Amino acid sequence: MAVVVPEPADAVPLVSLEAPGTEIAVVCLRAGGKEGRAALDRALAQAAERGCRVLGGPAVLRAESGDPVTALLDELRGINPERLHTLDPDPAHVSFDEASGTPGYDEPAGRAEAAADALAAARALQLETGEPVYVDCYRAKADVRLGAASCLRHPAPVNWLVAGFDGRLTAFLPTAAGVVRWFQDVPGSGAWRGPELIEGPGLLPGLTVVRDPHGFPHLFGLRRTPRGDGGVDVEVVHAAQYRTGRPLTPWNSLGGPNAGDWRKGREAGFPAAAFDAAGNLFVFVRNFGHSISYRCQSVDGTWSPWQHLGGTRVADDLVAVTAPHGGVEVCARARDTAAVVRWYQDRGGAWTEDRTPPFAVRPGTMAPAPEPGSIHFRDLRTNAPSAWRPGAQNPCPLGDVGGSGPLATARGVEMDGWTYSLLVGSGPGAACALGAYHEGRPGAGVWWQDLGAPSYGVPAAAVSRTGQLTVATRAPGRRLLVAHRGEQGSGLTLGDWRSAGG
Hints:
Helix content is 12%, strand content 38%. The chain is globular and about 70 Å long.
């Protein structure tokens, strides 16, 4: 894993987030000051004590190296990282000068520029080698005590393993050069193809995958494009897969809620999306003013303009779900208080803000639950996984399991004559954990088990049209590991983990 930052001091929080067993190489664009170098030395020594392998001291680019992207690429060739961690290329503003129309920031501009250079160098390395490079960008001043998932600028993807209409599974993951996918050759088989790069120049880390009412997967992300005047355009993009293994639709730009001013538009939050029961698609984004904007694509393919929900200011965490009545709702973590806010539509289509959800969430952990209208999250104080549905007086605990980050889900698993919903997440020690409960009844108890495989990020699960359960995880060595539930027996036992594709 490579950490790429402007100066040594900037690497300290990123190094502190690394789990035991990680190989860490630090690359700095500048030498920085004596105190910053000493702080990084201490952070690297502490990482080694907890079981990380530190690959020498930090590398510093030469002042005469010229183009920083070229110089970074030279360094990355020697490291050949499968993961790269850097800072936020598009940080949030803390003030705004109305007279000049200029946002103000409380961190040096060089940090954002260095992050953009790191993204460009990682893309170039992946295109040069053909091997995936997974990138995470970390928000400035994030509380590292809450864990890596809570510090990400672009959220970790969940539910990225999907069953196609023909019964074959596809896995989608974001990388430095775009989204890569793996797919099954034959339904239910252990033969996979991939990783295959889906073209998408300028895609930022992060990915939202949502299935439409027909079961087709739709992908949403952010695309960052340099402008000729020195600025950048950040826009929401959307693509869909209608046939497993065949090309996706082109990435369609949805623009952004602040597209008229690139300085505002670059701060767009990561999109959340959901379909209503009629097939209308809603896409939600946190805008420059820290409220929510959305666009809707009707079933005839027509897109509405960006519209503004207003109300409570929110952070980057959004989750959109299909409600029991068939409409769409969106929940967001409040920006200025430890609260969650919900917006829902009445029968006439008007939006109502609900500030009464009785819980606070750990950043980066909200995700859709299998039950319509419900969400999963980790409690801000305890980190315990929980579920909540609108109208419930309290959240529902999801069992005694550690770990971090959001939970992915699958439903419709038959066992012992009952139908179960499944939860998969990164459990204690970053190992895959699998939980099960009677479908629609999380309060009846969740049974967890360790699946014995490591996980970078959030593992995923899917149930094919024939009822076969598959769990997938991104593992060290650029491998996608998959395990299938055996056809025989009544228990929830998975077969051996195997690498998918190349």
